[in-house]
Amino acid sequence: MSDPISTYRVQLTPAFGFDRLAEIAPYLRDLGVSHVYLSPILQSTPGSLHGYDVTDQTRIREEFGGAKGLRRLAETLAAHDLGIVLDIVPNHMNTDNPRFLEVLRDGPASPYAKWFDLDWQDGKIAVPGMRPPGEHANLVDFREGPGYRRFFDVSSLIGLRVEDPEVLAATHEVIFWLLDEGLVDGLRVDHPDGLADPRGYLRTLRARSGGVWTIVEKILIGDERLQDDWPCEGSTGYEVLNRVNGLFVDPAGRAPLIDLFTRLTGQPAGYAEVEERAKREVIDLFFTAEVDRLARATGCATEPIRELLTAMPVYRAYVNPGEPPPPASVEIVEKAAARCSPAVAPLVQQVLYGPAEAITRFQQTTGPVMAKGVEDTALYRWYPLACLNEVGGEPDSFGVTVGEFHDFCGGMRPATMTTLSTHDTKRSEDVRARLSVLSELPSPWAAAVTEWSRAVGFDPLLDYLGWQNLMAAWPISLERLTAYLLKAAREAKTHISWVNQDPAYEEGIREFARRALELPVGEFTARIDPFAQVNSLGAKLVQLMMPGVPDVYQGNEVTDFSLVDPDNRRPVGYPPVPVTGWDAAKLRVTRQALHLRRRLDAATPYQPLYAEGEAAEHAIVFARPGRRVRAVAVATRLPVGLARRADPEAEWPDPARMRHGWGATTLTLPRGAWRDLLTGGLYTGRIPLAHLLGQHPVALMESHDL
After folding, report:
1. Hey, which residues does 8 pair with through a beta bridge?
2. Are 607 and 592 in contact (CB under 8 A)?
């Protein structure tokens, strides 16, 4: 068993199973990753392209090649010095599974009744849809909440009770077998916030797995950190993604971009009111059953419950039944309650100090409300700069300073995962790299998008999101753009939704997409791409070399201009063929950084470094001083501003002037001789950044202590 140094996320599908993955093992070895990070591998709904809809935890998915195929894959990867990290789904499974169907047939007497988090009413379970009724199913309209805990608002995914040791053992049988056999080196735990006791689950997992490297898919908001008493290495890295992204966003763009957004959409200038309204709407739309269940558990009326759920700023308050609530948890809940009516006061006591059912149910509901209200609604309604509208992001928070980033890195768990793109991100890292440039060019962007809007318009609440993503994902097909806009409109829920559709409106979206693609949007993209490439390479280098275990999402070792799923889960061709300078540069940065990470000590510290001179704010620099191998990473940030320093009067500065923008700015390297792995250049002591970054906007330097 070996802990991951870096990972490469692969989305397995029926068309890309274990044997197909084994074929690219030489490529992944040469890329420099240490482990292949697999999407869920247990038996799931036939044809599923994601695997989170598990139907049988006792079998490895036959469409991928089954147990024999996985063993062949593990052997092939091991022969190429590659390990495996598994994505596991303890929170839920698909309702179309034999065990739940038996419960509907036999009722509470079924041995599987304790598997599922059920809300029995008169000996029956409310089941939405057209399922044939058992002795014990009460069919309800699909718009109504079911009689069981589910994954967010997805009634086809039923919550599991892994807090019961027998249920945990039964649903993790295959996972534990793979660990015992030494076929798996790490675990990614999907949606721990849905569990009744995530801390207890992780403690059990750690003890049974022998301490295998484990990360959790936990969305952390603002300054929130993963709990110290959660026994795992860290999170999947959304808090890292948002801070790396923020390094390349100019805070000076905040006011003009919000002004442009409000002028084009008519939406408020403040995000908070949009977020609050969206959360309240999804509670009323999707979570009435959950609110009713909370009301029974707490003895409180439903309206105060809706108020407090709306006001909660995070996915979980980290209160454990039978223990005094942590002061930070009390502060979170009480601050949320202060925004509510006095009627919420009794509820606060219940969710902090009340019975286990009240405490647990509240925390299992705050996550879905945040996910559906923020990720899947508010972020599609308020988007002055869409690269900020990411999972766990704060769209009204423009920019992260170098000092703030250094402070964040200093407090990171050393073996947490870092990432820039995942199967759940709203857009890929290179789409965000293009959008970040707009924060430095708000006036030219406003002029361009105003002209396009005069030529083609459909819905003011959707069009501007369409223009941003069309520009940043260019070139894009009509099919892909239309699919994105339809999803965005359904998520925003301002005119249509997934359950309330309007054929005429949807046809209007298709026509908007068709006409928008005829405009010269690609010309604008081409003008910003030299700056976007700087952002892309800088973000990649920072993420790969900062503390943590860096993950590369499939295909993102070269440029990828994907939008939200399922667009970002499209098949990837291997090996990718760099056809542009940007592709080749990104692949080189990725490969050199991953190989250098394998040469560094696992516990290499993080040392902030600072450039000196008039353009120092345009550099993010840090060292990783290992015992034998040392590294320094240098990246350019805010490239438009750097070019403008050389040409202050230009509204749209010449990208070729970026090098001259450094002026006399210098960087003093730590002692020793340093070689830039990207250019082969040798350096020591104090270096002009105009010289160091003359060929590439980033530098990755290595030094050896003899």
Report:
1. 36, 552
2. no
SS3 186: strand
Average pLDDT, integer, range 166-184: 97
Return d(Cα 549, Cα 237) in angstroms, integer: 9
- DSSP code for 387: G
Tell me the per-residue pLDDT of 47-62, one tens digit each, with 9 for 90 and over.
999 999 999 999 999 9
The gap from C-alpha 169 to its chain's centroid, in whole angstroms, comes to 29
Q: Angle at the Cα of 529 (from 526 to 531), degrees rounded to 5?
A: 140
Mean pLDDT for the chain overall: 96
Average pLDDT of the segment spanning 621-650: 95
Alpha-carbon span 72 to 384, nearest angstrom: 49
**545, 625 contact by CB (below 8 A):** no
pLDDT digits (tens, 9 = 90+) for 480-521: 999 999 999 999 999 999 989 999 999 999 999 999 999 999
Task: Give the pLDDT of residue 327.
Answer: 96
For the CA atoms of 684, 687, 691, 694, the dihedral, rounded to the nearest 10 degrees, stands at 80
Q: Would you tell me how many other CB atoms lie within 10 Å of the CB of residue 670?
A: 15
pLDDT (tens digit, 9 = 90+) per residue, 306-365?
A: 999 999 999 999 999 999 999 999 999 999 999 999 999 999 999 999 999 999 999 999
- What is the rounded distance in angstroms from the CA atom of residue 408 to the CA atom of residue 54? 36
In the predicted model, is pLDDT for residue 133 greater than 80? Answer: no
pLDDT at 1: 59
Sign of CA pseudo-dihedral 191, 195, 199, 204: negative
Count CA atoms within 13 Å of residue 14 on its CB side: 9
pLDDT of residue 603: 86
What's the rounded Cα separation, in Å, for the pair 684 and 675? 9
| Strands, sheet with 674-676, edge to edge from the N-terminal-most edge strand | 607-609, 619-625, 629-636, 698-704, 674-676, 682-683
Q: What residues does 118 pair with on adjacent strands?
A: 148
Query: How many whole angstroms separate alpha carbon 623 and alpha carbon 615?
Result: 20
Burial of 444 (0-12, 13-18, 19+ CB in 10 A): middle
The three-state secondary structure class of 51 is coil
Question: What is the amino acid identity at position 30?
Answer: D
Q: Are 522 and 476 in contact (CB under 8 A)?
A: no
DSSP string, 574-637: SS----SHHHHHHHHHHHHHHHHHHHS-TT---EEE--BSTTGGGEEEEEEE-SSEEEEEEEE-
Q: What's the pLDDT score for residue 140? A: 87
**pLDDT of 705 higher than 90:** no
Q: State whether residue 252 is helix, strand or coil.
A: helix
Query: In this predicted model, what pLDDT tens digit does every residue of 248-277 receive, in sequence order?
Result: 999 999 999 999 999 999 999 999 999 999
Q: Read out DSSP for 136-162?
A: TEEEE-TTSPPSB-EETTEEEEEEB-T
What kind and span of H or E run contains 352? helix 345-353
By the 10 Å C-beta count (0-12 exposed, 13-18 middle, 19+ buried), 327 is classed as exposed
What's at 274, amino acid-wise?
Answer: V
Q: Give CA–CA dist 674/671, Å, rounded.
A: 9
Residue pair 175/186 in contact by the 8 Å Cβ criterion: no
282 DSSP assignment: H
Report field, pTM of the whole predicted structure over 0.90: yes
Determine the Cα–Cα distance for residues 428 and 392; give it in Å rounded to an integer. 15
The answer on pLDDT for 706 being more than 70 is no
As a dihedral over the C-alpha atoms of residue 374, residue 379, residue 380, residue 386, rounded to 10 degrees, the angle is -170
Going by the DSSP 8-state scheme, the letter that residue 123 receives in this structure is T
State the first-to-last Cα distance of the chain, in angstroms, to the nearest integer. 30
User: Coil, strand, or helix at residue 66?
Assistant: helix
Q: Are strands 83-88 and 186-189 parallel, antiparallel or unpaired?
A: parallel
